[in-house]
Amino acid sequence: MPVDSDSRTSQLRDALSDRILVLDGAMGTMIQQYALDEADFRAERFSDHAVPLKGNNDLLSLTQPDTIAAIHRAYLESGADIIETNTFNGNSISQSDYGTESLVRDINFEAARIASEVAAEFTASEPTKPRFVAGSLGPTNRTASMSPDVNDPGFRSVTFDLLAQSYAEQAKALIDGGVDLLLVETVFDTLNCKAALFGIKDVLKDCDRYVPIWVSGTIVDASGRTLSGQTTEAFWYSVNQAGLFCVGLNCALGAKELRPHLDDLSAVAETFVSCHPNAGLPNEFGGYDQTPDEFAEPIEEFARGGLLNIVGGCCGTTPAHIAAVAAVVVGKEPRRVPEIEPLTRLSGLEPLLVRHDSLFINIGERTKVTGSRRFAQLITSGDYEGALDVARQQVANGAQMIDVNMDEGLLDSKEAMVRFLNLIAAEPDISRVPIVVDSSKWEVIEAGLKCIQGKGVVNSISLKEGEATFIEQAAKIKQYGAATIVMAFDEEGQADTVERKVEICTRAYGILTEQVGFKPEDIIFDPNVFAVATGIEEHNRYAIAYLEACRNIKETLDHSLVSGGVSNLSFAFRGNNTVREAMHAAFLYHAINAGMDMGIVNAPHYTSSNRRRCDQQGK
Ligand code: THG
């Protein structure tokens, strides 16, 4: 994939460092004004199409191209620097409602061509104000992390793979048609967006030019959550993996109502920030009443507050609204992209930020069939409700992440992983924390990553099968947008001395950061907690080896984290929980001192604060 040096992208960057750029307004509102009928939507080309086509706005790029060009022109005349292609529903999933899914390539290619031609006309007549085209990719009409059936919360009407494939097809046609950037917008379900980013990355791998990606999320109500329940900050951590050019918020709320969420986003996003709100909140008929001046007023405030790099309009906005926006942002300083500290940032519905002085992070281990007989029994007997209670308990008792593992001989682990993660997604008191997707089988890990809208963690990869597999899996994890645990394991076996642990982790760090492009803060090393006091002399130094390796890794492998499976330590004392807990407490005391950031633990036993345990006993 070419780097960010294409001349169009550098023109765009130059313009953005200079001023706040103006995006166009709604396409739908404008199309409505033409009062097109069924025959207009069909034109000659689709006169025989079996189902009604009126309302399929995306098709108009093929049947009424002059109308679409005229709308683009109206927005460019009102001062827009960037126009969006008429392709919001131009994906195979949405188009299948009209039986036009086979037209996706044509629709997007033509829409991109029309917009690019009109933009080029304006650039030619006013070269100091270059105009750009964003290829619009809407959310589709299905949600990947929510069930449409209230009686079956684990059901999904669309898969990650279908979404990724559909978005890839659309993105490819938009790029071939000449767009300058891709805008994945009105994201109400972050998992749909992650699938879009996954599909787009596949397309960009084979693309001969650099195409920046822009994502715009949708906050659906005043509580500040997406429809799928994420906070703005959690949403940003979920999508930040893709090296986004710009991130923003659009639709659902009016400008005023978006302000607090835009403040949040602007503070954490180390890239350009955009906003294209609706013309106020909808009236009782679903229409929008805000006048251009009313619309522009809060936007002027945003600009004064230094929150904006790109601003435009969504539902209900017209060229008059965009002209008013252009008038209030002219001459105002654009937002300066902040330098953000390289810290590990994970998310469920809520963000989890790991500072180097953070308290120790507990990863709940009871949702592993290999780690808890009770959980294993619940899953193998099909009692998923009971299994969800185990997860809920972990979180209630202080687990800041939960590790889910379904590796059990009698189970279809992939199916069990998918089913359980889909059920968790419907439980906000569980899914507020990031998920650690745990399996020794790569296909189970991949299936799990396709079910989580947050930024999760893979447990685990290693150099066990050599560099090629390691690199391939790490690249995939990066494309899914997750962090990963890396075990101190190589072609020779599992490391048990300080030297071997440090050597393997150092080698893995080099490969991940230099060859795969992994961010160091997305790497969590696990230098192997082994059982001590087993009766075998050489096992007695295992805990000390872990502690020393931990200290060394924290000193030398910048920004990476260290984790470990604490309960391994006391395997020789299974059944004697009093001894086990005492050993874990002593070990954690030293390990946390040595820099251990997080551990896989039995959350209720070892890690809840006293207050939490009292609360629990009081119930
Ligand atoms: N590193 C990473 N992942 C890991 C480990 C690690 N995953 C697995 C394991 N090690 C950590 N998890 C556990 C979970 C439970 C137990 C030990 C390690 C355990 N369970 C009780 C037992 O077997 O006695 C179960 C008792 C019960 O059934 O309730 O000890 O090191 N990355």
Tell me about this structure.
- The chain is of the alpha/beta class and 619 residues long.
- The protein is 44% helix and 14% strand.
- Bound molecules: (6S)-5,6,7,8-tetrahydrofolate.
- (6S)-5,6,7,8-tetrahydrofolate (THG) binds at residues 365, 368, 371-374, 459-460, 485, 526, 529, 564-565, 567-568, 574, 600.
- Number of E-type strands: 20
Main sheet makeup: 8 strands, parallel
Distance between the termini: 57 Å
Strand content: 5-15%
Helical percent range?
A: 40-55%
Q: What brief labels describe this structure?
A:
619 residues; alpha/beta; eight-stranded parallel beta sheet; 24 helices; elongated; disordered C terminus; binds (6S)-5,6,7,8-tetrahydrofolate
In summary, what is this structure?
The protein is α/β, with parallel strands linked by helices. The chain is built from 24 helices and 20 strands.
